[in-house]
Automatic annotation (TrEMBL):
Alphabetically ordered keywords of this record: Golgi apparatus, Membrane, Protein transport, Transmembrane, Transmembrane helix, Transport
Organism for this UniProt entry: Paraglomus occultum
Family to which the UniProt record says this protein belongs: Belongs to the SYS1 family.
Compartments where found: Golgi apparatus membrane
One Gene Ontology cellular component: cytosol
Protein's membrane topology: Multi-pass membrane protein
Descriptive protein name: 6364_t:CDS:1
GO biological process: Golgi to endosome transport; Golgi to plasma membrane protein transport; protein localization to Golgi apparatus
Protein transport among keywords: yes
Transmembrane segments: 15-42, 63-83, 89-110
Lineage: Eukaryota, Fungi, Fungi incertae sedis, Mucoromycota, Glomeromycotina
Entry keyword Iron-sulfur: no
């Protein structure tokens, strides 16, 4: 191709992206279908779409479940095999970076979710009914509510137990 006339390198083309996604999904499910068909014919099991689409078919207590697991692993090898181990520095950095983002992002999300306050208000008189039963009375927190996060951390001195 002449210089400057590369195929869609600078144009945002959602139709092309959607067609590529459909093509990859079709190729992926076609290859897993062929592999599962081959393994089920060899093992003599009945062939159903559940073996491809139902996650409950992957079981560790049956030979069929193990066979399906190995078929999916074989499909992953077939789907991403390029003839050699990647040797470019950028490929390794990209994969390491995405792994770190997923690991640390997941950890951060879990920590934030776990640190959300547990609401113990019974809604009747504004007292914390659950704490009242545990402490033998009711507890009142002096302080204001932070509207951004829904709560405010207070020191232990600000908590009154009646």
């Amino acid at each position: 191709m002449p210089r400057g006339r590369a195929f869609r390198t600078t144009i945002w083309d959602p139709l092309l992206i959607i067609c590529q996604i459909i093509a990859l999904q079709t190729l992926y499910y076609t290859s897993i279908s062929v592999i599962i068909l081959f393994t089920l014919l060899i093992t003599g099991n009945d062939i159903t779409l559940d073996h491809i689409l139902d996650y409950r078919e992957f079981r560790a207590d049956t030979v069929l479940g193990w066979t399906l697991c190995f078929a999916w692993i074989a499909n992953a090898v077939v789907g991403y095999y390029s003839g050699h181990i990647p040797t470019t520095f950028v490929w390794w950095v990209l994969n390491a970076t995405t792994c770190c983002i997923m690991i640390f992002g997941g950890e951060l999300y879990c920590m934030r979710k776990e640190m959300e306050p547990i609401v113990l208000d019974d809604g009747e008189n504004g007292n914390s009914g659950t704490n009242a039963g545990l402490l033998g009375g009711s507890s009142v927190v002096k302080g204001k509510r932070n509207e951004d996060v829904g709560y405010e951390l207070v020191s232990l001195e600000e908590i009154e137990i009646r």
